[in-house]
Amino acid sequence: MNENAKNELGKLLVNQEALLEVLSKNHASLSDYPELQEYLARKTRCCTLFKSY
Hints:
By secondary structure, the chain is mainly alpha-helical. The chain has 3 helices and no strands.
């Protein structure tokens, strides 16, 4: 991993909202983390419903 990639990863690790946004794009891949997967699925549905109005 190059320094730029490390910096980007570091930014995600310290910014919880940014990390959750990235994870929410593919919450189905979090099968090892069912609580987080459920939270992101609910959050994504909520935001999708909110944006559709």
